[in-house]
Specification:
CATH superfamily of the largest domain: Bira Bifunctional Protein, Domain 2
CATH class of the largest domain: Alpha Beta
Strand content: 25-35%
CATH topology of the largest domain: BirA Bifunctional Protein, domain 2
Number of strands: 33
Number of helices: 20
Strand order of the largest sheet: 16-20-21-28-25-24-22-23
Shape: globular
Largest sheet: 8 strands, mixed
Helix content: 25-40%
Structural class: alpha+beta
Radius of gyration: 31 Å
Number of domains: 4
Length: about 650
RNA sequence: GCUAGCGUAGCUCAAUCGGCAGAGCAGCUGAUUUGUAAUCAGCAGGUUGUGGGUUCAAGUCCCUCCGCUAGCUCCA
C-alpha cells in the first residue's frame, strides 16, 4: 500500500499504482486540470509518472502558481520548438535545449542558416504542435539501446553525449511526442497543450559543448509565459532596456563617442561625459584619501620584461596589443608594452626603497589607463573596450593585515554603491580549482586565502551572503567580484578585490619588508578595483539612471531660460551668480517660445530650469521648474541656489527609474 | 576569433522587380519677442562604410576589407 502525504499534512492511501495526476484527480477535477508536474520526495517529476507501489511519499502538485512551473513549461517549449524546426528543416541535428532566465533556447546543427525571417514559420509550426496537444511520453532505455536509438534517428551529437557525457548512467531517459523523440532528463508538462504564449527572439551561433574548436551550432532563443499579458509585459521590459541603452543615450546626450577612425573599443569622453567622470573621480579620490590611500600617477606603457616578470605577458599574450619593438624600427632599443594592468608599476614604487613593517599597509592608488586587445566580437559600447581606466589600487600588507584590508575594500565599495543608489548587489567569491594546473602557488596558501575571504565577507554587516564559484579565480589568487543590479534588475559585473600571494614571491618580483625581528619578510598584495573601469561603471550608470543623472553628477545642472530676449540682461546676472556659486549652468537665449525651450531642456534631461520673464526680473527672482515635478513656482535667486546646493552636497538620488 | 544579420545626410528612417537618392528632426539664414514639452518660411546638407566585379544601368546582385548588432568563445 502507498501512503501519499500532501503538503498540508493530509494523506491518501492507494493499493493500486497511481500517478501524481491520478492523485490530483482524486482531490479535485480542477486541480487535476491545473497540475503541470509534481514534486515527489523533493524531486521534480512529470505528472504522469507512476508513484512507488508502496511505502510513503511526500507529494506536492505543481501548478502555474508554483515557481518551478515557468521553468518546466519553458523546457517543454524548447522541445516544441525543436520539433517544429525538425519538421521544417529535415536533417537537423539536435544539441541541447535548456531553459534560461525568462526563456529557453535550443542548439541545432543545420547546413542552412536560419534567419529571423524564418521565425514566423517556426512559430506557426509551434502553434500547430501546441494545438495538436500531444502528450510528452517518458521512455527509459538502457544506455546501449539509447545509443542505438540515437544512431537510428541520425542524432550523432546525442550519441556522443550519451557515450561521453553520460558515461556513468545505467539508463537514460527520452521524451517522445509523436514523431519527435529527444534525449532529455525531464521532467516535462504532461502535454504540449499546456504551453503558453511564446515568441522567438533571436538566432545566434554557439559552439557544441562550449568549445570553440568544435562544431558551430545555430542557437534559437525564445521566451515563453503562461499568458499573453505576461509575454507582453516581458517584451515591454526588453523595450525599456533598449530605451536605456548607454550606447544610444551616450550619443543622444553627447556623453561619449567611439570612432572607428580612432579605433574600435577606444572610448572618447565628450565634454558632458567627461563632467560626469570628473565628479565621480573627485568623489572616489576623496574616499581614497579618507581611507589612507596614496594616489600616484604612472605611465601607460612599460618595458616588456616587467610583464614577463609579472607573468602576465606570457599568460595573456593573445589579448594584449603587441609590444612596441624599438629595435625593429631603429636597429637598437628595447620593447615596450602598452600596459594591460597597473600592478607592475605600483610594485616598482613599492620597491623603490627598503620597506619596514611600519610602512604597512601601504596603499597605492591610481585611476590607471590600461589597454587590452579584446577579441573583436567582444567589444560593446563602454562596457567591453580596448582601453579603459581602472579605479585601481594595490595594498601591500602583512599576512595578519589581510582581513582588515579586505574588509576596508568591501566597506568603501558598499559606501560608494550606496551613494549612487545601487542598493542591490551580490558578492561572488571566485575560488581556485585544485584539480586544474591553471593556478600558481601552493594549495595551502590558497586554502588560507579563500578561508580568509569567505570569513570577512560573511562577517561584513550589510553584505549579502557571498556566492562561491570554484574555478573562477585569477591565476594568482582568489577574488571577490561585485555584481550589481541596476534599477531594472539587470546584473553588471563591476569590480573586484583579489588576493595575490604570487607577484610578491621570489619567483616574481620578490617583494620584502623588514619585520620587527629585523628579518626580511614577504608582504601580501591585494589588487582592488571595486568599480572595475570608469568606462564600464559610467556605462552602467547611464542605463541605471536612464541618462537622468542625480544633480551632483549632471553635466548641466541648471538651464536659464528667458521668456523673451528682452530679459536677457537680468538672466545673465542670474547666470553669473550661479556660475560663481559653482553650478554647471546652461542658457537658452534663442528667440524661441518658452515652451520650445522647456521641451528641449526636458529632452536633454536637465534637472532644473530657471525660467525668467518680466515678473522675475521685477522681483529679483527665478521661476523654478523641476524636471520631474514641473513648475514649482517663483522664489528669490538665493533660495533657489541654496536648494540646489543642498541637493548637490547631499548627493541626493531623487529617482532612478523612468 | 566564430556564426548570423546589418551599414543610405549630424540623428531617426524611406527609396516597388536592378531604372533620375528622398523625408522628418538637428544645422544655417530671415521673419517672429513669445509665460512652463515643438512659431513660420527659405537654404544647405550624399562618391549610399571601403575596394573590386556583373550589367546598357547597382543603394539594390556577387566578392574583399572595415565597422556595428545579437550570441558563442575569452575576460589579468
Amino acid at each position: 500500500m502507498l501512503n501519499v502525504i500532501l503538503p498540508d499534512g493530509s494523506t491518501l492511501n492507494y493499493t493500486r499504482r497511481v500517478t501524481a495526476l491520478d492523485v490530483a484527480g482524486d482531490i479535485g477535477k480542477r486541480l487535476a486540470k491545473a497540475t503541470l508536474a509534481a514534486e515527489v520526495d523533493g524531486k521534480l517529476v512529470g505528472s504522469d509518472q507512476l508513484l512507488p507501489a508502496e511505502g510513503e511519499v511526500r507529494l506536492r502538485l505543481i501548478t502555474q502558481r508554483d515557481p518551478e512551473a515557468l521553468d518546466l513549461m519553458r523546457h517543454s517549449c524548447a522541445h516544441v520548438m525543436a520539433r517544429a524546426v525538425m519538421r521544417l528543416y529535415p536533417g537537423v541535428q539536435l544539441a541541447f535545449g535548456p531553459t534560461i532566465e525568462n526563456g529557453f533556447y535550443y542548439d541545432f546543427l543545420i547546413e542552412q542558416p536560419i534567419s529571423e525571417d524564418d521565425f514566423p514559420r517556426i512559430e506557426a509550426e509551434m502553434r500547430n504542435i501546441v494545438a495538436e496537444g500531444e502528450l510528452f511520453e517518458r521512455v527509459e532505455l538502457p544506455r546501449t539501446e539509447a545509443v542505438e536509438l540515437c544512431r537510428e534517428l541520425g542524432q550523432t551529437l546525442k550519441v556522443e553525449h550519451i557515450e561521453e557525457g553520460l558515461g556513468d548512467e545505467a539508463s537514460v531517459s527520452f521524451y517522445r511526442q509523436g514523431e519527435f523523440v529527444d534525449l532529455c532528463r525531464g521532467p516535462h508538462l504532461a502535454a504540449a497543450s499546456k504551453v503558453g504564449a511564446v515568441k522567438l527572439l533571436s538566432v545566434a551561433g554557439a559552439y557544441w559543448k562550449g568549445d570553440s574548436n568544435r562544431e558551430q551550432l545555430q542557437r534559437l532563443y525564445g521566451t515563453a509565459w503562461f499568458t499573453q499579458d505576461d509575454l507582453d509585459e516581458h517584451l515591454r521590459k526588453l523595450e525599456e532596456a533598449r530605451r536605456r541603452d548607454h550606447r544610444v543615450l551616450g550619443r543622444q546626450l553627447e556623453l561619449f563617442m567611439i570612432d572607428p577612425k580612432v579605433g574600435s573599443g577606444l572610448v572618447m569622453w565628450l565634454p558632458k561625459g567627461a563632467t560626469v567622470r570628473r565628479e565621480l573621480e573627485a568623489f572616489i579620490y576623496d574616499e581614497l584619501l579618507r581611507r589612507g590611500y596614496q594616489p600616484v600617477y604612472t605611465p601607460a606603457i612599460g618595458r616588456v620584461e616587467l610583464y614577463e616578470t609579472s607573468g602576465h605577458y606570457p599568460y595573456y599574450k593573445e589579448s594584449q596589443f603587441p609590444p612596441i619593438d624599438l629595435a625593429a624600427h631603429w636597429g637598437e632599443g628595447e620593447k615596450y608594452l602598452l600596459r594591460p594592468m597597473n600592478c607592475p608599476h605600483h610594485i616598482r614604487i613599492y620597491q623603490s626603497k627598503p620597506r619596514s613593517y611600519r610602512d604597512l599597509p601601504l596603499r597605492i592608488a591610481e585611476l590607471g589607463l590600461v589597454h587590452r586587445y579584446e577579441q573583436s566580437g567582444e567589444l560593446t559600447g563602454m562596457t567591453r573596450v580596448r582601453g579603459f581606466t581602472q579605479d585601481d589600487a594595490h595594498i601591500f600588507c602583512t599576512a595578519e593585515q589581510v582581513g582588515d584590508e579586505f574588509r576596508g575594500c568591501l566597506e568603501m565599495t558598499q559606501f560608494v554603491l550606496k551613494t549612487l543608489g545601487l542598493e542591490n548587489y551580490r558578492v561572488r567569491l571566485s575560488f581556485g580549482d585544485r584539480s586544474s594546473d591553471k593556478y600558481v602557488g601552493a594549495p595551502e596558501t590558497w586554502e588560507r586565502a579563500e578561508a580568509a575571504l569567505a570569513q570577512v565577507c560573511r562577517e561584513m554587516p550589510g553584505l549579502p551572503e557571498p556566492h562561491i564559484e570554484v574555478g573562477e579565480a585569477a591565476f594568482y589568487g582568489p577574488k571577490a567580484d561585485f555584481v550589481v543590479n541596476d534599477c531594472i534588475g539587470r546584473e553588471w559585473q563591476l569590480g573586484t578585490v583579489q588576493l595575490d600571494y604570487n607577484l610578491p614571491s621570489p619567483q616574481r618580483f620578490g617583494l620584502e619588508y623588514i619585520g620587527t625581528d629585523n628579518q626580511p619578510h614577504e608582504p601580501v598584495m591585494i589588487h582592488r578595483a571595486p568599480f572595475g573601469s570608469l568606462e564600464r561603471f559610467v556605462g552602467m550608470l547611464i542605463e541605471h539612471f536612464a541618462g537622468a543623472f542625480p544633480l551632483w553628477l549632471a553635466p548641466e545642472q541648471v538651464r536659464v531660460l528667458v521668456v523673451s530676449q528682452k530679459f536677457e540682461d537680468y538672466a545673465r546676472q542670474v547666470e553669473r551668480r550661479l556660475v560663481e556659486a559653482g553650478l554647471r549652468v546652461g542658457t537658452d537665449y534663442r528667440p524661441e517660445k518658452i515652451g520650445a525651450k522647456i521641451r528641449d531642456a526636458q529632452l536633454e534631461l536637465i534637472p532644473y530650469m530657471f525660467v525668467i520673464g518680466g515678473r522675475e526680473q521685477e522681483g529679483g527672482a527665478v521661476s523654478v521648474r523641476d524636471r520631474l515635478q514641473g513648475d514649482v513656482g517663483a522664489m528669490p535667486v538665493d533660495e533657489a541656489l541654496a536648494k540646489l546646493r543642498e541637493e548637490i552636497d547631499a548627493k541626493t538620488v531623487r529617482r532612478v527609474a523612468g
